[in-house]
């Protein structure tokens, strides 16, 4: 069974930083690609950042220059470094990853979500 476990959320003042982690565990070979989404109250879930299997990245316009997505293949972990946080970044952040299992099958998984709250 594959699990994605997120950590690193919390309460921070505007202008501060947080680093979210998304660790994959279980019968996996590696993370193929990963992404972070967020959902604020009353809003739809939106893509924040993504990293492809080849390592290329893309970001929502609202976070470009402030957020950085990365991954550690050896640790099967995807990260989201968030700097210069703004109150409008407040949301539940979800990790999504394409996992290659031990049978060489790629499936998508979601984490449980982690709350990020930015105070003004």
Tell me the total number of β-strands.
11
**Helical element count?**
0
Could you tell me the strand content as a percent range? over 45%
Q: Identify low-pLDDT runs.
A: none
What form results from the Cα inertia axes?
elongated
Provide the helix percentage.
under 10%
Evaluate the radius of gyration. 14 Å
Largest sheet: 7 strands, mixed
Commentary on this structure:
This protein has 120 residues and is mainly beta. It is 0% helix and 60% strand. Strands 2, 4, 5, 6, 9, 10 and 11 form a seven-stranded mixed β-sheet that branches. Strands 1-3-8-7 form a four-stranded antiparallel β-sheet, with no helix packed on it. Strand 4 (28-39) and strand 5 form a beta hairpin. It starts with a strand and ends with a strand.
Quick summary of this structure?
The chain has 120 residues and is mostly beta strands. It has no helices and 11 strands.
Question: Characteristics of this structure?
Answer:
7-stranded mixed sheet, mainly beta, 11 strands
């Amino acid at each position: 069974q594959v699990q994605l476990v997120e950590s690193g959320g919390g309460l921070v003042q505007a202008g501060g930083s947080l680093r979210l982690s998304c660790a994959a565990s279980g019968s996996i070979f590696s993370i193929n690609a990963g992404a972070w989404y967020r959902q604020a109250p009353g809003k739809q879930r939106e893509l924040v950042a993504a990293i492809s299997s080849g390592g290329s990245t893309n970001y929502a316009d609202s976070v470009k220059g402030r957020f950085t997505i990365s991954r550690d293949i050896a640790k099967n972990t995807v990260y989201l470094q968030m700097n210069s946080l703004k109150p409008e970044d407040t949301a539940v952040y979800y990790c999504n990853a394409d996992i290659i299992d031990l049978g060489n099958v790629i499936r998508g998984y979601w984490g449980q979500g982690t709350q990020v709250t930015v105070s003004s």
